[in-house]
Amino acid sequence: MSQDVTRRKIEHVTVALGHDLTAPQAASWADIRLIHQALPEVDLDDIDTGTDFLGKWLRAPIFISSLTGGHADVATINARLARAAEHFGLAMGVGSQRAALVAPELAGTYAVVREQAPNALLIANIGAPQLIPQARKAPFTSADAQRAIEMIQADALAIHLNYLQEAAQPEGDRKAKGALAALGRIAAEVRVPVIAKETGAGMSREQALKLRDAGVSAIDVGGAGGSSMAAMEAVRAEQRGDAQTRAIGEVFRDWGIPTPISVIEAGEAHLPLIATGGVRSGLDAARAIALGATLVGVGFPMLKAASEGDDAVDAFISGFLNELRVAMQLTGAATLAALRRVPLIVGGATRAWLELRGYDDHLRALARRG
Ligand SMILES: Cc1cc2nc3c(=O)[nH]c(=O)nc-3n(C[C@H](O)[C@H](O)[C@H](O)COP(=O)(O)O)c2cc1C
What we know:
alpha/beta; TIM Barrel; 12 strands; binds flavin mononucleotide
């Protein structure tokens, strides 16, 4: 079993780097238009991108998304991303730690992040499907979750919700009943805040409210429109000659609630929100924060840069931060708190969806505030 998990970890990275896994979505960040201020009266150099997240101060509202670990060849990627998280004052996640929970000799491929980022906000990662009994597999307990946290001396624990991905994996876990209650138990028992984290299929208002009631401290909406885990599994299934599972991954490639919509819907839970899924520029980040996100999560672009080297990661993050600062200046927002109050227009497929879900007044209020 541990062999399978570790092989899957390296396959995910290789597949993501070798294929375009983007989920096509009509509703996208381009639907969110921030209103330009011709005389912003804010100096670019005075812009402050700092923010609090779960009690820790970040210099910029960026979460280097949970991506990898669990195979010797990906430890370098984690080390590079961790150095950048430390240098730029960002949050960072590791990929699912299941591999090291079942094969402790792999712990170093995750623990490297704390060695390289002694002060950064680091987020451990386990999966909700593994919190309940699955075919021939016992569930992880709160003690296992605590081991994952201690493995990287994490400040928070992300519990990922990836039922679409599991359905598109030949070896995937199929049972879902009881996962919400199990997640609530873990949230009550571990010693750090728990973040519920979707992985590309997004978050509805109803699910966000259930997660809040279960006791999570934050939600990563993990919306559709960025890397598709279904597309990733379709490639793996194809490589194995498994046509049926491949079809699931392809048919459901763009399944889910787009990220900007997820931010508005999940906003009803009034918890800190991470907007992940297709955030590709500092302008996308500004749009997400203006919509109500606390942080943005960036996955694939970080993975790609880290596969190239430390300089590529630094260049990607500095460019992204420059774009965010320009968007803040042009909306007259010197701080992220001010950015959360700027007026914006929601159009296109995002608007159509939100109007049908009853958000007309909310959209009008967003357009007129400030
Ligand atoms: C190669 C790869 C591996 C991933 N592994 C995990 C994981 O183990 N746990 C998790 O919560 N999310 C995982 N994700 C999902 C990312 O955290 C993120 O939600 C997703 O990539 C969407 O962001 P993006 O559009 O910026 O890439 C993975 C993504 C990729 C591309």
